[in-house]
Amino acid sequence: MKKFSFYIFFLIFINAFAKAEPRILPPVVDHSTYPGGQNQAAHALSPKALYETLGRLEQLQAEVQQLRGQIEEQDYTILELKKRIKNIYMDVDQRLLKLENNGVAQPNQTEVPAATPPEVQKVTQPKTAVVPKKANKNEKKQYQAAFEKLVNGHTSQAIKKFNQFLKDFPNGEYTPNTLYWLGEAYSIQQNLDLARKSFQQVINEYPNSSKVADAMLKLGYLEIKAKNPVKAREWLSTVTTKYPGTTAAHLATKKLQHLK
């Protein structure tokens, strides 16, 4: 009896299943053809990933703003340093010129050590020394304008202004300083011949100038650039012998140690 009931139930189930309408499954969409595929869709639907991305963007924006602020502060600091350097240059130049005019700390140019090479002796023993005239306002203004061009890095313009100054004031109070800084400007442009000529003119024509020791030092530097170590040692040794205790002598000693 139990077996008969089971067969009846099974037949009814098979008949119902055969008459049932098949379900239509949703179409399968292939996401592999899109950038990122299923992973991108999964991330786009993730609130946690979205919040993390927004947080990173805000952090990056804050860092960019901070860096901009630091750059502005550095630009301001560099500008202030340039102004200070220019003022220091002008102040030192003016003080040296006052010492020169007052006769303070004048170097003794009459004694030439026996160890001084003949070439250097010839340059450091001029026949006649030029006595600069007292400067007027126009001379000082023109000199300062040329000097500021050099300090601000406008070397070519500085050279033109220095040369014009020498034409207008060939024997002025600022002429020795002008020749020295003209030599520096030519040295910056790697024009060693004209730089050498300017420094030697300071030594030959203005032996009482406070720029003489510096001019000799720079002549030593020029000979190093020109790959003439023998002449470089001659000039540097002369500075240390004739001007002991000066800044030029200290720098010359250091440079001589490197040459050895």
What does this structure look like?
- There is one protein chain.
- Among the domains are: 129-208, Serine Threonine Protein Phosphatase 5, Tetratricopeptide repeat, CATH 1.25.40; 210-260, Alpha Horseshoe (Serine Threonine Protein Phosphatase 5, Tetratricopeptide repeat).
- It is built from eleven helices and no strands.
- The chain has helices at 2-19, 37-44, 47-102, 118-124, 137-151, 155-168, 175-188, 192-205, 212-225, 229-242, 247-259.
- The radius of gyration is 42 Å and the shape is elongated.
Could you tell me the radius of gyration in angstroms? Answer: 42 Å
Structural class: mainly alpha
Uncertain stretches of 5 or more adjacent residues: 103-119, 121-127
Distance between the termini: 124 Å
Tell me about the largest β-sheet.
none
Q: Give the count of helical stretches.
A: 11
Residues in helices, as a percent range: over 70%
Named at the architecture level, the CATH assignment of the domain at 129-208 is Alpha Horseshoe
**Quick one: CATH superfamily of the domain at 129-208?**
Tetratricopeptide repeat domain
Summed over residues and divided by their number, the pLDDT gives a mean of 74
Spell the H/E element sequence: HHHHHHHHHHH
CATH topology descriptor of the domain at 129-208: Serine Threonine Protein Phosphatase 5, Tetratricopeptide repeat
The CATH first-level class of the domain at 129-208 comes to Mainly Alpha
Q: Count every beta strand, where a strand is a DSSP E run of 2 or more residues.
A: 0
Overall, the morphology is elongated
> Beta-sheet strand percentage?
under 5%
